[in-house]
Amino acid sequence: xxLLWVGLLGGAGxxxxxxxxxxxxxxxxxxxxxxxxLSLTLLAMPAAEFGIAALWLRIFxxxxxxxxxxxxxxxxxxxxTSTATLLLLLLIGHNAWNDQHQRQLLYWLLPLxxxxxxxxxxxxxxxxxxxxxxxxxxxxxxxxxxxxxVIGAWVLGADISTIAIGYCLTSLLVLVLALxxxxxxxxxxxxxxxxxxxxxxxxxxxxSRGVLAQAWPFAMGNIFSLIYLQSDIFMLSAMHDTESxxxxxVAFSIIALVxxxxxxxxxxxxxxxxxxxxxxxxxxxxRAYRLGNGAMIVIGLVVMLSLIAIAPFLVxxxxxxxxxxxxxxxxxxxxxxxxxxxxxxxxxxxxxxxHMRKKMTYQMTVAVLNVGLNLILIPxxxxxxxxxxxxxxxxxxxxxYLMGVKNHIFGSQALRGWTLNYRTMLR
Length: 427
Known about the structure:
Elements: H1 2-25, H2 28-43, H3 45-49, H4 52-63, H5 71-96, H6 100-109, H7 111-129, H8 132-156, H9 160-181, H10 183-186, H11 208-239, H12 242-258, H13 260-280, H14 282-319, H15 326-333, H16 336-349, H17 356-410
Helix pairs in contact: 1-8, 1-12, 1-13, 2-6, 2-11, 2-12, 4-7, 4-13, 5-6, 5-11, 6-9, 7-8, 7-9, 8-9, 11-12, 11-17, 12-15, 12-17, 13-14, 13-16, 14-15, 14-16, 15-17, 16-17
């Protein structure tokens, strides 16, 4: 977990340095334009990836080596969903912005969602093999390539269009590397990390309809989660002004850094194990749930209070006086941290077995709530309205997850026994 966290921090550090260099390389209006376009392309990534990585983790936890027959059908679905996503991006971008400059940025950034989706899918292979050191480096690679482009632009004095072209070329390079990572999955030679003496269940090769039926809850859940987490930037760009978008984007980049701890613990390290425990060791799943909840509440509160105390000084120190107003946005978004940390622990249980459809419903509810709040608050309060929409959305999601785990997985045990005693996992 420490390796994964360091790797994610490294990737987030690359993203943070990219922001620092961008604010010193391009005008604030260009910074806002790039942030709006980039947020739209990254919002489209889950539609291209279509939940395939999460589906792989689930089917291999249940069926072991027999699940290799799912690989080629799922990748065929990926080709279709990626093509549809790119067409949808072009349609949305053409209608969202009248500015031809922003449309041109979108054209150059079109490879990003496909590349990011393939990075996630190839990362699932590394999770299944237990190769966490390589996974940590692999997930940071796209952010490192974007940092390299911005460093070059800063040195050469290039404009935002040149940076977008650089993003396009490096995305194509990483895309090719990701495809090479998937070769062992397609020919069935990947060496899976499996517990000793685990049974192997025989299954038949799924049809495309069967893959879609299993994958779509994961895909929609990922889409909805990005909507309530990052749609604020795109909506600010479309409904307000580029300066507010740039300021909010800086604030969100800091919050994204502190969100990495639960991501490393639950999404990267523990998720394959949660799938196995849900199938074969329900008692251990409950103990992991209780320990995760107790730890995330305490750590989340400490991080929240620290951010509220230092955010204005932090933003001005790193980004300069031009972006000082973003510090107050960070203080508001800091209220999200305990809810996000706790929801990461609770929500991991809802990915297992057949509960993903329930989790997707909760995520859809919060996505609709978030968009509605943004439509109301952004026109009147700008970036501060977007921040409060995010806080309320994170609170709602945490409560819905807790209700779902209580009603469908652990019953009344979901509400008691939360602990900081890690020795409970050793029983």
